Automatic annotation (TrEMBL), chain A:
Keyword list, A-Z: Cell inner membrane, Cell membrane, Electron transport, Membrane, Translocase, Transmembrane, Transmembrane helix, Transport
Protein name: Ion-translocating oxidoreductase complex subunit E
Family note: Belongs to the NqrDE/RnfAE family.
Complexes and interactors: The complex is composed of six subunits: RnfA, RnfB, RnfC, RnfD, RnfE and RnfG.
From TrEMBL, chain B:
Source species of the chain: Rheinheimera pacifica
Database matches in HAMAP family: RsxD_RnfD (MF_00462)
GO cellular component terms, A-Z: plasma membrane
Domain of life of the native organism: Bacteria
The protein, known as: Ion-translocating oxidoreductase complex subunit D
One GO biological process term: electron transport chain
Enzyme class per UniProt: translocase
Gene name tied to this protein: rnfD
Modified residues (FMN phosphoryl threonine): T187
Subcellular location: Cell inner membrane
Amino acid sequence: MSQFKELTLQGLWKNNPGLVQLLGLCPLLAVTATVTNALGLGAATLLVLLGSNIAVSLVRNHVASEIRIPVFVLIIASLVTVVQLLMNAYTYDLYLSLGIFIPLIVTNCAIIGRAEAFASKNPVLPSAIDAIMMGLGFMLVLLVLGAMREVLGQGTLFDGADLLLGDWAKALRVEVFHADSHFLLAMLPPGAFLGMGLLIALKNVIDNKLKQQKTVEKGSIARARITGAAQ
Amino acid sequence: MSFKIASSPHQHNQRSTAHIMRLVALACLPGIAVQAVLFGYGVLIQLVLAIVTAWLSEALILKLRGKPVFARLKDNSALLTAVLLAIAIPPYAPWWIIVIGTAFAIIMVKQLYGGLGNNLFNPAMAAYVLLLVSFPLQMTQWLPPLSLQSVDLTPLDAVCSIFTHYSCSGFSLPQLQANIDGITMATPLDTLRTDLARGLTLDESLNRPVFFAFAGTGWLWLNLAYLAGGLLLIQQKIISWRIPLAVIASLFVLSAIATLAAPDTIAGPLFHLFSGGTMLAAFFIATDPVSASTTNKGRLVYGALIGLLVFLIRNFGGYPDAYAFAVLLANMAVPLIDYYTRPRTYGHRPRSELK
């Protein structure tokens, strides 16, 4: 159970693929203009990551280590093709709006990173949990960034959620405020970089605060300095 | 006895940062006055909004960073950024334009890089680009000079139209932009650009009422006023002559050659020098001591690069005026320029002799 907890903490916070490992930045920055796109790509990445971690973990003892990377890439590529065809079939509009970034999941370093660093060394169950937690962590970052950019850029949330979730999701659309002129920068690539930087900064601030609290709770032992001149 | 080891500059004069910044801001006054008289009082309201926003955002971020608030506010650098941005944007732009711009300039471009002296980019120009990219419509609605406007604008009208998008008598900005014949007028650079795109020749375009002598009505005086302020700064030794001279000279030479080669499509050097933001940018913006090149040779290269970029973007690029883009691009080149133009240290041999 403690391993499960540790994996959760690692994936969602301490070793978050988006905020700490800074892996998969290309899709992260490119498709987060709206929450819907972020959710779509996050879910696709999560599915691929889960499948690849399980598959890699299953074959880990049968693959010679010299050719492991091509094998991992093949596994990931086939899974991405599956996800791509599924999205093409069931969420066609979202498939169109995500465009090239669905096939590009193959090159998402977060996925091959987990395959190499975790799944190729661990049994199936922990690998699956690791995949879910890492995927969720990545998706959360996508969602927060998408929400920031969508609110700033268009003043809405979940605009076009029906593309992903079906017609009922039209009710999800929230208009936070109405503006005649949109803040285009938030929707453009620079907005993604600025937003990402601010998110990382926020995480570091929270971490520092937590660390400070911990040291205060522990209580520091005051030591008298006996050697050298204290300046 | 201990010697204090400090980095250059080792020679000091009595001027503090606050004093220099204040003088630069004061040297903008002739230009601001001309703009207020010829183009209406909108610029004054923008100035007030910008300065208040700049002080508030600077105070906020200094507080967050745990720095002394009042001491840093007193160095007037936020004030100068606010002034430069306020005179660069269209004077009748809605109030939130200048508020967003100034807050971005101070918080993102200046303080997040570490505050005064550490910013890579010129804060006012980075904010200008942010606004131009984000709100292209509002950032291009320049009113024609008062003498060409069909509606008389009072100072109160400036307040109304900045805060409510309509003048007190109910005219919207596009209506105010129209002249007596009902034709919408833009800035001289914009008009020229549109006309050339429509297939008119340079001479046909220059007959329009927005042009006067060899530049735009009103814009000529505006640029002359900034030129006067800039020359005062050089005389006071606040800025070096190298950057303004290089900007002006490279723009002059390039457009002189180009207009000889293509007299019907590229305006002459005097038009380029006295239109848009040339003088303001050459003397007040490009000379920002933090983001500009710091070596003497480098300053010439830096200024010439800005002139070249402005010439290229104005004549062949997507925007009528381009100082903000040119300054930011040149800012990016500054580390490289500084590296290759390092002066020889006293007592060392020039690099060419080192084998």
